[in-house]
Amino acid sequence: MEMGRLIRIALGVVAAIGVTALLVGGREDPSRQTPPGRREVVFWHFWGGKDRAVVEAIVDRFNASQHEHFVRAVAMPGHNLDLKFFLSVAGRAPPDLLNQDDPIVADWALRDAIVPLDELATPEEYARLQDWLFPAAREIGSYCGQLYALCNGLDIRALYYDGTELDERGLAPPRTLEELDLIAEIITPPADSSPRSHYAFLPDPRRLWAWGIVFGGRFFDPARGEVTADSDQIVHALDWMASYSKRYGTDRVAAFRKGDQALSGAAFPLLQGRYTFVMDGQWRVPELAAHQAQVKARGEQPREYGVIPLPPPAGGATNAGWVNGNFFVVPRGCKNPPGAWAFAKFWSGFDNHEADAARACAEGGWIPASQAVVRQPEFQSYLRRYPDFALFVELAASPNQVPTPAVPGAAYFYSEIDRAAQEAMYLGIAPRDALERASQRVRARLTALETEEN
What we know:
alpha/beta; 8-stranded mixed β-sheet; two-stranded antiparallel ribbon; 12 strands
């Protein structure tokens, strides 16, 4: 939803029924009352399921670590966290801290809805923080060269593969894009028109954000403030992705992809035997290990799986891809900014809290935002338990891991690129035409947002 409209809706709704009625969806433990003499930190987060227990354990450890502040966590699962936030701002009752994973930093910073970190940190802290963070973590939290958010965990994508299938065929994991294409044709010959229940590999239109970077492109040039999603490198990436639809038949590929969406819950298509190669995130590493342990417990031999960086084309970028992550923001006008900053540092690991963050990342299966956390013994123990996780940590330190551009309307930007990829891959529209039209729409939106603010 366009941000100006979101704010107007929030103001109207608050005027009609009040902020308390609309924020009743947040869930908290009534037993967690702030002790006398402590300053409360109201913390909103989106975590649910098993992750919510991890979050509550982190909160408990922080609360036990000192006697000045007391974090009261409120789970805000589901959608519309943006709307709930602006409702709280409009009602003059914002939380002290939010954990987010949507590309909202630029939108909220532009509207002065969040406090820049140099207002929370000392000058010495702020300078040290810039060097402490991984480049991707720093970029996720920045807008116009200034940090507005403190990243506490990264999500990286890489290419998982069925090692048992490759071994059976006498094939090695690909090191280049050309090798991936060759393996795909060997395992899934295009000339075979029989019904398929398995493909070696099919690009996902949602992953143009990753492959565009692998091809050496960038979707936005911050130095010039220009949308570059229709640059040659991005066009070539989409050309390559669309070539798989042409090779196997657009309708058949689209139908097979639709079958992926029909899988129950968060089922991993690699485990369903649908693919030899699947791009996915680090959270699949423990899932694969658990699956293999279950197979062994039945007395059977499990399949072997592995993971590699996204293989680049000739002249492309190594250890490259799209990255996102979780981060803390402090709302403008909240009651306890110092307490919010203290808890954000505790969880992320900054300012001598690396051991605390290492424990949190090991419990949650999260990639730290800093190499200083990675080096901690508890996280190193986690990597020994899950060796394939180490690749994702290595990729997190790469300057070629690039997040969604930090511009106002970033969510719109993201969806328009997805739309262009789907048009090229499933509707037969020329990749350059699809990307040029998407870029024009994004440029128009950015211009409109700038005009609205001025």
